[in-house]
Amino acid sequence: MTEPLAGAHMRAELNSQPDTWAQAEALRDTQALLPAAGARVAVVGCGTSWFMAQSYATLRERAGHGETDAFAASEAFVDRGYDAIVALTRSGTTTEVLELVERVKGKVRTIGVIGDPTSPLVSLVDDAALLPFADEQSVVQTRFATTALALFRASLGEDLTGAINDAAAVLAGTDDDALRDAEQYTFLGRGWAIGLAHEAALKMRESSQSWTESYPSMEYRHGPMAIAAPGRVVWQFGEAPTGLSTEVGRTGARFVQHPIDPMADLVRLHRVALDRAVVRGLDPDQPRNLSRSVILDA
Length: 298
Hints:
single chain; about 300 residues; alpha/beta; Rossmann fold; 5-stranded parallel sheet; 9 strands; about 40% helix; Sugar isomerase; GlmS/AgaS_SIS; carbohydrate derivative binding; isomerase
């Protein structure tokens, strides 16, 4: 029997993202479960889901839909008179999310955005927005995170046609080996793309055990730029601050920015992370020290 290729699940899942985004955009009834415009909302998650929560919170508030805060579930300040709490989790089994939802049950409306429709969170939340078609076998998340963000963006009235087309174009192309083989990576973003920068750094760490950092773009000059050097990459998601590419160039580091939707650029990073893992002899479907869900002992 032939052994599966390292990262086979991750590759199939990351390649499916244009299709899963289109499915999420079409789920109008599911989008209607999310908090209505004007509601004061907290969005919680762990790891990847926390970073997607950050992006959603920025998008929702800047779209004028109401005050929106994002928290790591373990550190959430939810006793602030929120109208609703959105809990984002692929597995629906993460201990910190379950404990938070149980703690606020009956006090504030909870909406779960969940990949596994059989998970215990489904019966705990007041409303469950289910994305089973985006659930994954790989431990390292790709499509669930971006599909949830696609759902959020569509719920705010965004047309995702451009993002979907950009992602499809990324997947039809190739990336150069120098980008894959850099010594170190720093990811930057502005606005809602800050969450994507943090997620990109996490993906590269999880997949390939690489040295990565992430910051809001304007914070990069305030210290982190000290590590920029030849053989290292500074990857900007979305629009860059004026002059930053020139400043990075002076350090000898490579400044990377693609004129595409930042969510599609994250798909490119997914592929770079996977390819980097494979050439290092690693399997991102089963990364070191990690599991699909963090379930803590009582």
